[in-house]
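Discussion board: Methods & Data

I've been asked by a reviewer to show the raw model output for two of the constructs in my manuscript, not just the figures. I'm not sure how much to include, so I'm pasting the format here to get opinions. Each protein appears as its amino acid sequence followed by a line of discrete structure tokens. Is this the kind of thing reviewers expect to see in a supplement, or should I convert it first? Here is construct A:
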Amino acid sequence: MAFDIAKEHLRKAGLEDRIYEFEVSSATVELAAQAVGCEPACIAKTLSFMVDQKAVLIVAAGDAKVDNHKYKEQFHTKAKMLSPDEVTELVGHSVGGVCPFGVKEGVSVYLDESLKRFDVVYPACGSASSAVKLTIPELETASGYLGWIDVCKGWGEDHI
């Protein structure tokens, strides 16, 4: 059902033809990269956090990791990831298919600077066996993001 909601969201944005459905799992960065046929860094993983009792999604490059210090500077609280049950309840997608498309009302979406080095990225599409090929401007539009933030480490030109 989450896949259908994400797919409908992308259809309304004119991006439905970019969706991939796989016979294999794409639930992790590595599996998604194998399914898509790209470098893991190009997978746009969606991380789910709790900030001020609300769900916050951060879409980051597949090779990026959350930097706790940067996160605390941005959100003024410690990074607290949602449990799998909280993700499903608050965001509307299950772990392995979390994406910024067709999320529940009140969920805030941010894009991490780690994505800006790519022309095309592949976020999930609501299921653990899907992805969608998007340019960065398309991701901005389709995600309804609130802004670009810099809360990750472990990526960059010296890591490519």
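Construct B, same format:
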Amino acid sequence: MAVADEFPTSETLSSVATINQDRLFADSLYGKSFAQKFQKDASALADENRRIEQELTAEETALTQKRKELSNIEFRKLAEAFNEKVENIRKEQAAKTTELNATQIQARRAFFRLVQPIIIQLMQDRGIQFILSDQAIFISASDGDITNAAIEMIDKELSASKTSPKE
């Protein structure tokens, strides 16, 4: 029976495999940890935006009330200052949103740099010469997809090295 145990399976014979990069990131412990932190940060930014909106609405209401008491010139100066303040806040908040979204791109890049040696090891273990993105494949046998095996190896390796997304 020793010969039968050494006989190559379809897993070890396949020189080409596919991988779902989105699922690899999202389903790994690293990706899940990042998604949790990202959601927390996105919620905090949304809360801040709602708070700012309420404050600006109250300030606009107060400015509208003052209109009756002020000359057109005085009111126009206050209205222009308020509009400038609103535009500045919009730019600041848009920059925060852009920065938050950039963290997703940075986290994915860091993840794929980090897991490259693990994927290479998986390739060597299985005799794989090429890995293609599953999105570039029209049709394939399901046994060529190594995403689940890669996630298992990544979680094991990264957990052992205590690597996680930066807080």
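Answer (T.O., handling editor elsewhere):
This is acceptable in a supplement if you add a one-line summary per construct. For B, something like: The chain is about 75% helix and 5% strand.
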